[in-house]
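User: Some background: our group keeps a shared notebook of sequences we're curious about, and every so often someone picks one and asks for a predicted structure to add to the entry. Today it's my turn. The entry only has the sequence so far, pasted here. Could you supply the structure so I can complete it?
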Amino acid sequence: MSFEQAWEGFAYNIEKVCELQATEPAVADVVSGRYPAADCLMAVCGRAQDSGTRIIERTQPAGAVRPDFTVKDLLLFLGTNALLARAVADTAPVARRRQVAFLLDGLSAETAQEAISVVPLTPQRMYDVMGRLAAP
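Assistant: Of course. Here's the predicted structure to add to the notebook entry:
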């Protein structure tokens, strides 16, 4: 897979998931694990996380996405994007697209300057954070 193909696929996926979070609130609930007691929903959440992992694993070897980006980083972004999408839905719906553009610009391995010194969250911390983000 070429850099261009990998980057275009990655960016398209991120943009579409973020768009779905804004237009279909249930998608935001699935990605963020908003209802941890709902076994079926959590199974879908797990599949969404697996999909995110596969996308990152395919794009990093092609040199498209910075090597220090992890699925936990993606999930944290998607969790905050869900909150932003809800907050701006009625007043400034394009604001979330600007944030997605900034994220994508910062994730390109082509333009990355250096590795980020802050380590990604552990699985337990990620679970705790996502639970707090998703709390009603």
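Suggested note for the entry: Residues 5 and 73 are 22 Å apart (CA to CA). The radius of gyration is 15 Å.
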